[in-house]
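Reply to dn_fold:

You asked what the input looked like. This is it:
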Amino acid sequence: MTYLEIYNLLKNKFNLINEKIDIPKLGTRVINIPFESFSHKLLPGEKTYQCNEHNIEFKTTYDLSSKFKAPHLNEIIETPDSKIKENINFNYSILIPIEVKKSKKTGKRRIKKVKTNGTIILLHGLNEKDWSKYLPWAYKLMEQTGKQIILFPIAFHMNRTPAKWIDPRFLRTANKERKEIFPNIANSSFANIALSARLQFHPQRFLWSGLQSFYDVMQLIHEIRSGLHPQIKKNSSIDFFAYSIGSFLANILLLTNSFGYLSKSKLFNFCGGPTLNRMNAASKYILDSEANISVYSFYIEKFEQELKKDDRLQHYFSDLHPVGKYFRSMLEFHKMQNFREKRFRELHKQISAIALKKDLVVPPSEVLNTLKGSDNKIPTKVRVMDFNYNYDHVIPFPPTKKLEKEVDKSFNRVFRFVAKHLK
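and this is what came back:
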């Protein structure tokens, strides 16, 4: 089947509600599993904060109030992160291979699970609300590696999003209000209004939701390693396929290697890998210009000052929390460079990447600079590819009939290279 055929079939069959979905035509079963995030109290919205690990209480509080005469926009900005139920309790999906056999006597189909030889966690990009584009990626990974694939949503993305943040009517009104307040705004759209508005006025949300996502993935891995997962054996290998901002998270997961769980894990970065300041998230699909400036200013220009003002921020970026230290090393290319590159050198056999020549959000040169080091001496395998059709960072494989043959060639070319690393 071509990429387009696989895309359409999976898009029509997939959902996050049914416990089990069999797709015999692709030899695939989708299993949806409930998850409860234990780390949501990290997020803005709590009255008090403490680090239970180090028994420390913080003075930090967050004022999420908005003073605009814009009810829809205010609702987006003021919603307390830690109270959003969809972000705490949600389902994630696993794709597993199945075998379909017909009984010679009765002619009835019999479906059985195929034994897998490992697990791959797929991490998506920023401001995503729908798994459709990733379903063929997950299927191809499963087909070519023989491993089961977990589609795990990052905090406040996919089905971890409040209903109003995906309601076009509500979002268009909020976006209209936003444009009236900021008439010179660029790349503003109903698709990025929720993420943009929340990050513009409270850029710390990027950090705390990122930390929640980090701890959620580690919670999932701990569940597997403890033998508590309903579908995955405790000794299963655990690898990662990550795209865009998912690569930012996945790199930090491997750099930190909490509890030694990821000592043998492999990671493939697709259209991802650079430090934060070497990516350009200004896009009508990702962040508008005001949010992009605010995030850049907070994390790149003013971060040292912000640390001095906030005892909680300072704590989570200290040596007491290795994840915070590695997060910090991934913010600005020239800061903590030796520290970061030493660790990437240790991980070079575990990490590989593909960058796309025409990608303006994650430029290939920056993927190379971060993963191979400023002197290009880290021997991490990074390949730069180009396709014979118009594509961009957000849609590398357009699901259109007109480009079906070319897209299919590029898709298979990419995932052959990916499978070599993740097998």
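The domain at 3-422 is CATH 3.40.50.1820 (Rossmann fold).
Hope that clears it up.
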